[in-house]
């Protein structure tokens, strides 16, 4: 199917990945965010945006140390909400000196103001994927890849069409390849627990995630190529060079800050590692590269975008989200596990004929709600940025604020998706939250994909191309797990990119 056809309707890829009309029981919202009126029946007061940026150099450095070391992310934002009595305020965001030339942002921390960041009529997204700094294009073959492009740029539409084509052309391979790959992962966990009494989920998941993506999207098992099983290690090094200014590795504070947040690590140090990844994709994506040429994209630029979309976006999402998902399911306890097991096995038996199918998963409301709840409470991408295209006003629940053209807006999503004025018990993992008519209405406020869950990615917006793909594989992960196991116990630690999960027990069905 030609990629141009995929964009004639914003929901065509959605329908191809999820052919059942009952994929979700909500009706898609057709009103764009930009159409929401500012003036409401009850007029809110206009406030000056509170907060400040401090003295040059000193202010950004102080905020950086508070954010990473003195307070940590959650307390950093919570303390300022309390100080300014506002969910919208001014502060600095890392990295600041000497990597970022301007660290000044306006922070949006409630579910009312946060969607402004998705409205491309109001904000520009050019070179803002990682925030107040942009990694060197040398890390991506000298190209600005799709994630850094604004929809107004011609290449944005071409590259998004290319990724729609990739997903559409390989949709029939997703379920069978996931089953095969994650059965191997579960076999590995069982063996480790039998031998050692515990198993490291993260490392096993990293290997499984890349193998699944390679087999389902590109039709090749990396173990059978020159890449072997090295991809997760190579990707980890490359991602570190992309993200080091905005993460911490848990080293002693001064050393951690000195190494990661003051100067860019030289891209030349990972050039050979990246080249191995690039060669793998170039050799195994002929049909996609051919499609890129039809769209007017060189084979080299297409391939660099495939590397980024697969390794950074898709692999990175599975690397972070699957351990987080299992963490919340484990915390839900045996009652939740019993309910999930019963629902999943019944649906697979009677709707799927003993196999996992799309129609079978549509009969699993609790499973679907659990996935959405994990995406709400622990979104895999926490931060979003946008630069005001013109003077505009932004509403919180309590007030209206004026923003000037060119000012940088920043949103920390875990606060917006735990907004107590939208969600009851917002800090709790509530497995049933999105079941039923009232629960389905709340999906508008699940924002992990750089847009509401009730909307779909198009070439005109910045919503994640793989939004529906990520939801599908997350559902498959939960479904495969409870077809095999009754319950589990885990120990939860931390890592630079999410939860570190050690599985201590697995009870087979």
Q: Which labels suit this protein?
A:
disordered N terminus, 509 residues, 11 strands, 5-stranded mixed sheet, single chain, 17 helices, 11% strand, 3-stranded mixed sheet, alpha+beta
Give a description of the structure.
The chain is an alpha+beta fold and 509 residues long. It is 46% helix and 11% strand. It contains 17 helices and 11 strands. The protein has a 5-stranded mixed beta sheet. Strands 1-8-7 form a 3-stranded mixed beta sheet, with no helix packed on it. Helix 8 (231-243) crosses helix 10. The protein is globular. The two termini are 42 Å apart. 43% of the residues are buried. The model is unreliable at 1-14 and 19-41 (pLDDT under 50).
Short description:
The protein is built from 17 helices and eleven strands. It has helices at residues 3-6, 12-17, 58-70, 73-84, 154-169, 174-196, 201-218, 231-243, 253-260, 271-283, 286-294, 299-351, 358-361, 365-377, 413-416, 436-441, 467-484; strands at residues 46-47, 88-92, 104-108, 123-124, 199-200, 383-388, 392-395, 400-403, 408-412, 485-495, 498-508.
Q: In what order do the strands lie side by side in the largest sheet?
A: 2-3-9-6-4
Unreliable stretches covering 5 or more consecutive residues: 1-14, 19-41
Span between termini: 42 Å
Total count of strands = 11
Largest sheet: 5 strands, mixed
Helix content: 40-55%
Structural class: alpha+beta
Strand content: 5-15%
> What is the H/E string?
HHEHHEEEHHEHHHHHHHHEEEEHHHEE
What is the residue-averaged pLDDT? 93
* Structural shape: globular
Number of helices: 17
């Amino acid at each position: 199917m030609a990629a141009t056809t995929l964009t004639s309707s914003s929901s065509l890829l959605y329908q191809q990945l999820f052919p059942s009309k009952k994929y979700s029981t909500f009706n898609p919202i057709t009103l764009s965010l930009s159409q929401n009126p500012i003036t409401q029946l009850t007029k809110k007061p206009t406030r000056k945006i509170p907060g400040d940026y401090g003295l040059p150099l000193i202010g950004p450095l102080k905020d950086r140390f508070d954010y990473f070391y003195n307070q940590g992310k959650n307390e950093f934002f919570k303390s300022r909400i309390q100080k300014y009595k506002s969910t919208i305020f001014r502060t600095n965001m890392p990295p600041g000196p000497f990597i970022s030339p301007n660290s000044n942002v306006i922070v949006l921390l409630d579910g009312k103001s946060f969607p402004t960041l998705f409205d491309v009529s109001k904000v520009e997204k050019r070179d803002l994927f990682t925030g107040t700094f942009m990694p060197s294009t040398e890390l991506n073959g000298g190209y600005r890849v799709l994630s850094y492009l604004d929809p107004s740029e011609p290449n944005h539409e071409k590259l998004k069409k290319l990724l729609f084509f990739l997903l559409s052309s390989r949709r029939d391979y997703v379920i069978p390849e996931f089953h095969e790959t994650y059965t191997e992962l579960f076999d590995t966990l069982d063996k480790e627990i039998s031998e050692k009494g515990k198993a490291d989920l993260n490392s096993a998941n990293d290997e499984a995630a890349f193998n699944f993506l390679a087999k389902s999207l590109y039709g090749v098992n990396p173990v059978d190529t020159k890449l072997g099983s090295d991809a997760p290690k190579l990707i980890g090094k490359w991602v570190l060079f992309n993200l080091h200014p905005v993460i911490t590795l848990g080293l002693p504070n001064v050393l951690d800050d000195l190494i990661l947040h003051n100067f860019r690590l030289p891209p030349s140090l990972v050039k050979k590692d990246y080249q191995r990844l690039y060669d793998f994709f170039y050799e195994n994506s002929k049909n996609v590269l051919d499609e890129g040429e039809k769209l007017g994209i060189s084979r080299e630029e297409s391939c660099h975008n495939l590397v980024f979309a697969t390794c950074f976006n898709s692999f990175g999402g599975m690397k972070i989200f699957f351990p987080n998902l299992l963490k919340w399911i484990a915390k839900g306890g045996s009652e939740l596990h019993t309910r999930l097991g019963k629902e999943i096995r019944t649906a697979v038996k009677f709707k799927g004929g003993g196999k996992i199918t799309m129609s079978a998963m549509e009969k699993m409301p609790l499973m679907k709600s659990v996935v959405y709840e994990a995406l709400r409470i622990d979104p895999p991408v926490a931060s979003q940025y946008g630069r005001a295209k013109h003077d505009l006003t932004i509403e919180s629940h309590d007030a209206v604020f004026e923003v000037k053209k060119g000012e940088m807006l920043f949103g920390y999503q875990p606060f917006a998706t735990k907004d107590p004025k939208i969600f009851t018990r917002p800090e709790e993992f509530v497995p049933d939250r999105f079941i039923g008519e009232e629960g389905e209405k709340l999906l508008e406020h699940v924002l992990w994909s750089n847009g509401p869950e009730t909307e779909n990615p198009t070439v005109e917006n910045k919503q994640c191309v793989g939004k529906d793909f990520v939801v599908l594989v997350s559902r498959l992960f939960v479904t495969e797990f409870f077809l095999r196991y009754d319950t589990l116990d885990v120990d939860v630690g931390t890592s630079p990119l999410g939860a570190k999960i050690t599985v201590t027990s697995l009870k087979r069905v």
